[in-house]
Queue: 4 jobs
Job 1
Amino acid sequence: MSALCLSCGVCCDGTLFATAPLAPGEAARLAERVSVLDADTMEFPCRALDGVRCTIYDDRPRICREFNCLVLAELAAGRITEEEARAFIDEVLTRRRALADAMGLTDDAGALREARALAKANALEPAALAALERLTRALMFLKLPLPG
Ligand code: SF4
Ligand code: SF4
């Protein structure tokens, strides 16, 4: 696992994706270990995540093996440095923390889920909405389409 991922985890905790596809047979094989939504889909946050560590790393779903976020992909291709990649992930985590602060919550990923639900219902207060928008802009640059 990349050192970057070991201090991030946003592609597993619901920050980046709500759901991801499972390969045939994985829903049954991993039903007790990941958060299976239906026969073809897992949802986030993933129950296999402990902090920012995957507890089933050697047996994780195919999608988890294939997915690299844009920052990791750019780093692997040599187009950005380790420091630049680190700075980008830190910025995402800082913006998520700021959102949780604006909501008076301590669980950053949980605050984001709540903020999204409140924003959908037009019930998120302005400071938190501004923080959510700042985070969403950063996440747009992190997100690559999930491989099919
Ligand atoms: S979002 Fe990128 S850096 Fe963060 S854990 Fe996922 S792949 Fe790793
Ligand atoms: S199985 Fe592991 S790598 Fe895949 S989403 Fe869950 S915690 Fe992340």
Note: The chain has a mean pLDDT of 94.
Job 2
Amino acid sequence: MARHLDLATRDALVLRMRFYRDLGLTEFYRRAVDPAILEQFESASPRLEEQAAAPELQEVSLDNHAHEARQAASGNAATQSILSAEEAMSARKAQFSSPLIAPEVAPAGRAAALEIIREEIGECTRCALHKGRNKIVFGDGSPTARLMFVGEGPGADEDAQGIPFVGRAGQLLNNMIAAMGLRRDEVYIANVVKCRPPGNRTPEPEEGATCSPFLFRQIDVVRPQVLVALGATAATYLLGSRQPLAGLRGRVHAFRGTQLIVTYHPAYLLRDPRQKKEAWADLQIAMKELGLKPPGKG
Ligand code: SF4
């Protein structure tokens, strides 16, 4: 492997090495990496366990469950052989109460880091939703976006195209983004589950719990300043709270180092356009956090 890697490739490599190391797969990356890079990495890069003890990561609770959660989230075959199905489920549940924030990736390496997550998802069969999907809908937009939207799951149009929010609800989301003075390619968009639930039903808890760790990792890579949860399902999985939407809207929540705002799902706004005014009020909170003014208001 070449010693002189460009910055983006090196950042992506370091992210992957940290990931494997924290799963205990040190021999795996030691065999694959140039010794000079390995030496720099091992001497300069604290383990996640050490980072969790650092003051800036106090919110991270690193216990055995959380470690198992990362193992379960990896989808790595070697890891899955370590955990029984029951342990894996309990570990996935634990991820909600102990979300680990991954080390920050430099902006130049974020596209490559997202690509690594996509590669790890592969042709995923980790939950039952794979049976009915056409395309995995990973995410769309800028890997360095300051604003990220999270929806529930793909619908028929998204399943056909492999891109989130491209149907009627997607058109409304595009209009909402434009009203905020942004272009769609300036934001990042993803869903709680990456495969279409049959008949557009709400994802089952096991499906959401199995898929959402990939979303958490996307959030950790993009590191948006503001995250907007679209609808109750996204809010529930992101905040780990089953409160009704009304109790979560209208304020800023701290989540994985971002400011999280909850609003209605565009599909709901299509069914009940009277709530658009409320949704706009939520988006204005997001705009305030981002220092944005509506177009035409200088
Ligand atoms: S929804 Fe997520 S976990 Fe389930 S099969 Fe699709 S990609 Fe895999």
Note: The CA atoms of residues 140 and 198 lie 22 Å apart.
Job 3
Amino acid sequence: MLKLYGFAVSNYFNMVRMTLAAKGLEFEVVKTFPNQNPDWTSMSPMGKVPCLETEHGCIAETHVILEYLDDQYPDKPILPGNSYDKARARQLMHSLELYLELPARRLFPGTLFGGQNDQLTIDEVKPVLEKGVRTINQLANCGPYLMGDTPLAPDYMALYILPLVQAVAKKTYGWDLLADIHGSAELLAALNSNEYAQQYSAESAAEMAEFVAGLSAK
Ligand SMILES: N[C@@H](CCC(=O)N[C@@H](CS)C(=O)NCC(=O)O)C(=O)O
């Protein structure tokens, strides 16, 4: 059986977990926090989560895991069938990560982890997020999902990226970023009506205290 390594607070882990559930695949979760132990880096070279253990070996990096799952288990596809639409889906996935998730992560210390962000970082991140928002609006065709009426891989990424980026933008800039992403309220409502999304969100909330305690112990 597929084994998914990670922990419930991790948004990347949840993107993969949600995809596995949406595709109706059986999998076992092995609770794992990122670390640099050789046993773990032999499976996930950067020491990050998630990592998927398959019958062939381990795969890390969320985009790659999602693509592998769709190639290996083509039922209930999470990427469009034709090459152009598939490329557009990938463009959305990369844009969500590169221009929203990763810049917002630079502000996690001062917004989510009880530390402080320096002004240079705050000033650098804002224009990247603004262009990221413009990019998502340009690429998406919400109805209510990012590419129409069926949830696909970009949606399972957006489900975990958008609320986090919203929280960071609100706290740092007082910016209601989601209000600037057309259709985001309908998109998130549709995605959150999924029973697995609700279950994983509850598990994430329950694990948050343990995660924060682990951070402050470092
Ligand atoms: N590029 C990776 C990013 C995964 C990632 O950053 N995961 C976080 C947890 S949400 C992590 O393992 N952080 C530990 C670290 O950066 O060393 C992916 O797509 O899976």
Note: The radius of gyration is 17 Å.
Job 4
Amino acid sequence: MSKTYQTLLFPETRPPAALRDSTSSTFQENLSLPVHRWFRFSAGFSAPWVETVILEQDDRPVQVLDPFAGSGTTILAAESVEVAGVGIEAHPFLFRVAKAKVERTDDIDKYANLVKHVIQRATAIRTQTDHYPDLIQRCYPRDVLEDLDRLRRSVEECREESGEWNLIWLTLVGILRIVSPVGTAQWQYVLPKKQKKLPRSPFHAFSSLAQTITKDLHSLKPVSSNSQCRILQGDARVCENLPDNWATLVVTSPPYPNNYDYADATRLEMSFFGEVRGWGDLQEAVRKHLVRSCAQHVPESRVSLDEVLESEFLEPIRTEISHVCHELARIRLTKGGRKTYHLMVACYFHDLAQVWAALRRVCKSPSTACFVIGDSAPYGVYVPVMEWLGRLAVASGFRDYRFEKTRDRNVKWKNRKHRVPLCEGRLWVHG
Ligand SMILES: C[S@@+](CC[C@H](N)C(=O)[O-])C[C@H]1O[C@@H](n2cnc3c(N)ncnc32)[C@H](O)[C@@H]1O
């Protein structure tokens, strides 16, 4: 395959994003791209950059794996440059988002007719909004919530197992933040006190996103012409349902050990659809499936630091990680919040060591893995994330690792909880 940057999903020719520093770790570029723009995922990374990484592989055929698929960026990029791709995502809601995008429909007329039907039917539906949880009541004025409720009931009435219906569902998901007048832009947080200017009405926003989706579908090659790309609901620590020696390239971005809570990130959407009632339901519905990268995931009552540190998975970094975790255990006692960062750090590397072991099984020898990752400093204690992940990769059977920094973080001191300089970049693992 020639190394062209003129690709299927991203029609205009552009210089390789890999050459432009700092872009690989943000979703910003994707917001103007077909398919990617259907759902804004601020924890996502750049699709054009993933394409360049795939195209730069010399050994063919390339078979791409993303064990932390998120909104499906890597797999859409694989589709775009016509190589096989499998994404694994453990978050049940994000899995459905990625699947709706990657395994979308070729029957554009059926999707367009369903959109019309849903809107027509919705206008006649008697609405009932009292049952929505408090978060939803605070995020939408009554008239907006009534329209959203009509659309939701109408979408649910025509539910079926099909790519078209999955896209209808995604169309509704995609407008939920757009039509809220409160601050929902910061993906993880909903800020009911922060007002946005003139959000669009739900019916208008739904039609408008449906038009964008229809336009994008027309601009793409039929998805059935490339059935080698798919999204699986599963656990990166196991990579179940993937055969041994399958992947030649891994392009991924795991959660960082920085307390970002992926379960909380979709609380608005999952609350709207009745999948959780509140924050308390997130552990059972979402968090228990994920690698442990936030303190909420590791309450003291459930995790024994000594047991985790004694695990064979942590053997390659045991001395250093024990030191950091014990330091965090000491510092937390001096803090009001007493966050369990000591447990989070231990569990995070334990889980990521399992990921490397699973990747060693499903990757060919040799193969390449690229992790977009950043370091962290909970309570100001530095955690050398890239170095430890690299060492765990080598201990699981890969040959070597190298870190390519793309940007500094935490260099503007104002309002920061600590002053430890951090960075972000790509951890390349070979072998
Ligand atoms: C940084 S995001 C990936 C974003 C993705 N690169 C994109 O562009 O959309 C990390 C993802 O890993 C997922 N995740 C966390 N633990 C997981 C696990 N054990 N197995 C699979 N996915 C997991 C999270 O739900 C989240 O979607």
Note: Confidence is low (pLDDT under 50) at residues 1-22.
